[in-house]
Amino acid sequence: MWSREELDRYARHMILPEVGPEGQARLKAASVLVVGAGGLGSPLLLYLAAAGVGRIGIVEDDVVDLSNLQRQVLYTTDDVGRPKAEAAAERLRALNPHVAVEPHPVRLSSENALDLFSRYDLVVDASDNFPTRYLANDAAVLADRPLVYGAIHRFDGQVAVFHHEGGPCYRCLFPEPPKPGSVPSCAEAGVFGVLPGVVGSLMATEALKLLLGIGEPLSGRFLLYDGLAAEFRALNVRRNPDCPVCGDRPTIRKLEGYDYEAFCGLG
Fold first, then answer.
1. What's the confidence (pLDDT) of residue 57?
2. Which of 81, 131, 134, 246 could form a disulfide linkage to 169, CB 3.0–4.6 angstroms apart?
3. What kind and span of H or E run contains 189?
């Protein structure tokens, strides 16, 4: 089952009692879809590939810009102007040729989300806008896939696991999006270059824990990181029985026709 090269590559995993050859085999058989290959997606994708996750999908329709390189460590100066999905897939294959990388150079939408999510065991939301976050959450619930979530803003970060073994979803915590303009984007407010490395690595940790079935996932907990104060704190989150997507009487049963831009006040 294992080549000599794989045994050498994953040796430090296999000697961990919590992982071992059996756990490494689980990673090899697993599949993860990552939505977004920017600041958060960069370290996340690198660590998933390095860990030996067998199949990795990348949903990203943007191209590499010079301003990305301050934090998006997946890319080099030579990648400027290239589609991120293409450049990311090339880098991951170079890092670990034993991993199958599937680029999806499209924008996640109500039309394609369920089809994409249903092809993978686990979904990770590394997007940078509220319409995509709500869409990814709803698609994960409807496709019955656990969702690892992360977000960053200036010097602060957030990480959580949603829709895992009866746990809450993103809408349970944030029933309504913030008012348009109240949360500036990274382009407007800036972002500390190393912050995505911290938060993206935490997201990769949660993804690997879920795939391996080890530890205590961040389900029902919302982890906050303050980079300036070097402090973490976790908030407990409960599933909302009145949640419109994961509640006892859901009202969102399909994605087609749901306008996430308008829901977030951007339509």
1. 98
2. 246
3. helix 186-189
DSSP class of residue 213 equals T
From edge to edge, which strands make up the β-sheet containing 221-226?
100-104, 55-59, 31-35, 122-125, 147-153, 156-162, 221-226, 231-236
Contacts of 48 (CB under 8 A, 6+ apart): 32, 34, 56, 204, 207, 208
**Span 184-228, pLDDT tens digits:** 777 778 899 999 999 999 999 999 999 999 999 999 999 999 999
DSSP 29-66: H-EEEEE--STTHHHHHHHHHHHT-SEEEEE---B--G
